[in-house]
Backbone:
């Protein structure tokens, strides 16, 4: 029989785990560590670069003769509308990067590692230590300039399930890596 | 021929494959060449212009000769042998390369026989290694004896496997090769599967094929439209248009039906599912290409059954067992069985989940928030609204009626998918159901989860909702649009089960 209810009490469906559930640390009480402030600059630099490329392309559109087949009024309209949209997007980029950066953060617990990101479209990924396959630390060219590292935690679940924490201080990244490796080894020995 | 009859062969000496491998290599090489040069070949065949055609023929001949010689050389340059628990393959015509695969890395070994293989009584060995894409190894052609000896040798010498055997004791080790048929698809059942297959997909294939031919012909410089006009006087066509369209539609339906019937027979002919030594399944099927796929219980991550509307009326099910493997070969490695009854499914579940399957009978099933329905309605009908408006103003009555009917169908389908989206959670198992006109259900052991992700869109936040995505080693499961608080509780519970579990997920 299908009982259809919205927001059921979970305790009813697995009452035998009640105790365990209560003793578990709740994610929502967790304090998320923010990323390095420098990483915000990295994000902005990368965005500025893409915006410049797009801007140059739009500029070329106006300089050349490509607009000529269009009627006079349409050209006039585009001449004002496109730059306005572009400027709005520049402002939006700044706001969204700032907001997104404020929401990015990671947390380490006894048994797993969490990373959250997104401002409007939020997400939070958790990888238990006993499912970690391997860990890598990467740096892109801009990231190297600002000495931040990117920690990647791989599981057997494929690309979509991996956890990536950008904007870490290289020593922090290394420390986290060591910590997880130790945890993973410990859980392997237990098994 | 008994495949499990293990013969002791000394694999430490480098060996070549069976001579039939030359043909397999050549066959594969020519297939690639022909596919690449297809438009070119068509031009040569239909092109007519004599001198150019001759030259191209010579080139084609040279390519064919080169391919033949290349196949023979690559056969003689291909060796495999075993050295200290590693399978070593040396190959390459121009560039020699050595592949070393430790036995522990080999996830599964599958036998495959297509028509060519059956002609020479050889098998193809596919070895899947856990790892990134392209890390699988194929031995094109081995005789049965050597293939089974090799696979037995590898499976027995894996250190992980060894541990399992010693703990189970010697008695079980003897029974390892025990195989029992648990499902056999008979001819009437096969026809039932064919009749209830997804004919829409076959229809899509026909359309795709038609466009592909059209594309290739026009690419060659043949103006198909022009030629058609040459053959068919336009006015007569107009006069007979209604009858013609009707006939084409009927023909289309019949052809789609026949194609899906043929596809089913080719794929599922004489399908047999075995239970092997009580720790795995083997499925073999196929008419021309006989495939054998094996999966150990521990490696199976998800079990899914599904039914379309026709299969629902015939009360038969499709079943799929997803096993952990590298991403690129994921779907190929899934065990697929068609034409099962509810009893057959029960039996497989009992083998796979043991007594834990009973847990799901005791827990409640929950639906998702009605936001899911409105989301579905939005995405399935958003394109209809301007269409209906446009047709109304253009006063195209017949079209309008068709579109409105389609719109209503979409509304119903959105509602049905909402109704059928449910989930249930017990101590060890997660069940997620779905479907629109048909239905489907996926079951997963909780400890198979690799990571979990909580997602929330701005629209969900306004309603206090979120979605949960569970990643396993063979695909992800999604519980969409449930209360945020509940999402967190579920997530914590799942993590607790994974983190406190000592069970192997692989």
Residues:
């Amino acid at each position: 029989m299908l009982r259809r209810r919205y927001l059921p009490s979970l305790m009813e469906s697995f009452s035998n785990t009640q105790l365990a559930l209560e003793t578990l640390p709740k994610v929502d009480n967790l304090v998320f560590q923010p990323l390095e402030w420098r990483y915000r600059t990295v994000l902005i630099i990368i965005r500025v670069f893409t915006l410049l490329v797009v801007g140059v392309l739009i500029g070329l559109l106006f300089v050349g003769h490509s607009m000529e087949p269009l009627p006079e009024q349409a050209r006039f309209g585009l001449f004002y509308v496109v730059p306005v949209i572009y400027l709005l997007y520049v402002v939006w980029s700044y706001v969204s990067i700032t907001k997104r950066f404020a929401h990015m953060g990671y947390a380490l617990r006894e048994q797993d590692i969490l990373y959250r990101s997104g401002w409007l479209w939020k997400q939070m990924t958790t990888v238990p230590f006993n499912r970690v396959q391997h860990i890598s630390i990467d740096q892109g060219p801009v990231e190297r300039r600002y000495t931040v590292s990117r920690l990647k935690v791989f599981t057997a679940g494929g690309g979509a399930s991996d956890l990536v924490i950008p904007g870490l201080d290289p020593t922090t990244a290394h420390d986290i890596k060591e910590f997880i490796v130790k945890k993973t080894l410990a859980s392997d020995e237990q098994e | 021929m008994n495949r499990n009859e293990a013969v002791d062969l000394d694999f430490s000496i480098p060996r070549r494959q069976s001579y039939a491998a030359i043909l397999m290599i050549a066959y594969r090489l020519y297939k690639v060449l022909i596919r690449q040069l297809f438009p070119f070949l068509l031009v040569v065949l239909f092109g007519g212009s004599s001198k150019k055609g001759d030259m191209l023929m010579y080139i084609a001949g040279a390519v064919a000769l080169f391919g033949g010689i290349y196949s023979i050389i690559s056969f003689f340059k291909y060796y495999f042998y075993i050295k200290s628990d590693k399978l070593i393959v040396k190959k390459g015509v121009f560039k020699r390369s050595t592949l070393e695969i430790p036995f522990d890395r080999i996830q599964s070994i599958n036998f495959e026989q297509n028509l060519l293989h059956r002609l020479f009584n050889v098998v193809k060995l596919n070895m899947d290694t856990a790892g990134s894409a392209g890390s699988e190894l194929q031995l094109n052609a081995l005789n049965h004896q050597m293939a089974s000896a090799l696979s037995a040798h590898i499976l027995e010498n894996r250190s992980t496997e060894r541990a399992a055997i010693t703990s189970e004791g010697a008695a079980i080790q003897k029974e390892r090769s025990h195989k029992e048929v648990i499902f056999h698809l008979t001819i009437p059942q096969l026809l039932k599967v064919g009749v209830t297959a997804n004919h829409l997909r076959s229809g899509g294939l026909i359309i795709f094929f038609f466009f592909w031919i059209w594309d290739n012909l026009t690419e060659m410089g043949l103006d198909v439209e022009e030629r058609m006009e040459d053959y068919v006087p336009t006015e007569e066509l107009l006069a007979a248009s209604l009858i013609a369209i009707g006939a084409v539609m009927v023909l289309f339906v019949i052809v789609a039906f026949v194609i899906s019937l043929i596809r089913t027979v080719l794929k599922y002919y004489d399908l047999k599912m075995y239970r092997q030594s009580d720790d795995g399944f083997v499925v073999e099927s196929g008419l021309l290409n006989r495939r054998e796929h094996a999966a150990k219980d521990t490696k199976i991550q998800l079990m899914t059954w599904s039914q379309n509307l026709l299969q629902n009326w015939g009360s038969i099910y499709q079943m799929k067992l997803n096993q952990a493997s590298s991403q690129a070969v994921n779907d190929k490695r899934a065990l697929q069985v068609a034409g099962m009854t509810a009893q057959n499914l029960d039996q497989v579940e009992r083998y796979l989940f043991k007594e834990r399957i009973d847990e799901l009978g005791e827990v409640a099933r929950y639906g998702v928030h009605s936001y899911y329905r409105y989301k579905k309605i939005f995405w399935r009908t958003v394109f209809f609204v301007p269409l209906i408006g446009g047709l109304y103003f253009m006063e195209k009555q017949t079209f309008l009626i068709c579109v409105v009917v389609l719109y209503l169908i979409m509304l119903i389908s959105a509602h049905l998918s909402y109704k059928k989206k449910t989930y249930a959670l017990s101590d060890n198992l997660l069940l997620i159901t779905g479907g629109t006109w048909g239905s489907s259900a996926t079951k997963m052991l909780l400890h198979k989860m690799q990571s979990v992700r909580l997602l929330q869109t701005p629209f969900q936040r306004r309603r206090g909702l979120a979605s949960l995505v569970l990643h396993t080693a063979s695909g992800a499961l999604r519980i969409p649009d449930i209360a945020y608080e509940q999402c967190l509780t579920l997530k914590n519970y799942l993590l607790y089960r994974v983190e406190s579990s000592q069970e192997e997920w692989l």
Q: What stands out?
A: The radius of gyration of chain B is 28 Å.
